[in-house]
Write a structure and sequence with these properties.
The radius of gyration is 23 Å and the shape is globular. The chain contains 20 helices and ten strands. The mean pLDDT is 97. The chain has 466 residues and is α/β, with parallel strands linked by helices.
Amino acid sequence: MKAFMDKDFLLNGESAKKLYHEFAKNMPICDYHCHLSPEEIYENKEPSDISQLWLSGDHYKWRAMRSAGIEEKYCTGDASPKDKFRAFAKTLQYCIGNPLYHWAHLELQRYFGIETPLSEKTADEIYEKANQAIKNGDFRPQSLIEKSNVKYVCTTDDPIDDLKYHKLLKEKNLSFEVLPSFRPDKALNINLDGFGDYISELSKASGIAINTVADVCRALEVRAEYFNSAGCKVSDQAFDYVPFEVSSEAELEEIFEKGLEGKYLTQSETDKYRTAVMLSLGKKYSELGWVMEIHIGAMRNNNSRQFISLGADTGYDSVGDCEIAKPLSRFLDSLDYMGFLPKTILFNLNDKDNTVLATMLGNFQSAEAESKIQFGPAWWFLDTMDGMTAQMKSLANLGVLGKFVGMETDSRSFTSYARHEYFRRIMCRLIGEWLDEGMVSYDEEIIKEIIEGICFNNAVKYFGFK
């Protein structure tokens, strides 16, 4: 047996080892999509212990713990920090094959200097060692970001956000930038409770009296301009599938009134409203030179009982199976036909759609940017070894892998940057195998450019970061 997660972890040949250690390992990180809190980054508080750092808000870990039969009090409840850590350690020893198993051990190694595998047997020892490392070291958010060699952090922010903490962070002399991303989901989710209240808040934030769908679009444009002034270069939207259903202006206003009043809307009505707003937003993103990210395929809040008890983002989401090709094509085509298709990154959560997205890219490329339409990295339920490998193979088979913008964390954890190392090792393993099999010629200058590009350089150029 090989040593457990040593320096050559996942690197199954000499080519893979060379690619990782010489080209990938020390590249900076461009985290162009995450859910870190700009307030927490600014306040820069030391975590009280490893449980707060690791387990608070981490629905990946909670899902695994529930699947291992752990009581809820050890996940979101009032169990002590040490008991929660013990429960997670007991779970982890059974999570072989799950990326959590690798992520947790990479984080222990890289941030705490702990090489001992985590299990029920070693939980107390590692809990004490990790907490001693926190006590004697610097585990504040800014330090963890700097230690991880991160240069750009794009948080996920609502259009009504005042971006106070982004502005305050800009005044600090940090080695990295924290930039906002524009996430208009609440303005798009006309079918959900609270839509009318949100539109009132959007009206206040934008200074636009909102009485029509056109007013919604104008208010979002005003807020996008505000975000742009704060350095924003990214928008992000999340859908089961990308909607595309056109309607008359009169019908749109009827739908909007129903939404404001909290009345029931059909899926068709919801899609008509979303289509109108998204076409307006896509045009604005193009004018601003932003990148439009679209995350497709999450089926959220499946467990009604736990949603009522715990709320959203607590580990009760899963993969949807909607048909996505035709409406996505019509949406992109409409923007392209008008001359307003922005740079776009398409993310799928169901791997059945790998070929759909990998082929969709080629329909709308142009010389405006290298791989203007990108196949986003495997995320959430797909950021496994198999999921990452399959995404890169699909892109390589059907597109241009060498211009891929690479990994993002999509995380709320300040130690999750170990996921970039995981991704880079898997990427070098894949390309190393192709080299070893004679499928790729070894021109060191070209291979180095490709590896460093996927790690960091491609994203910096694509997003226009300085």
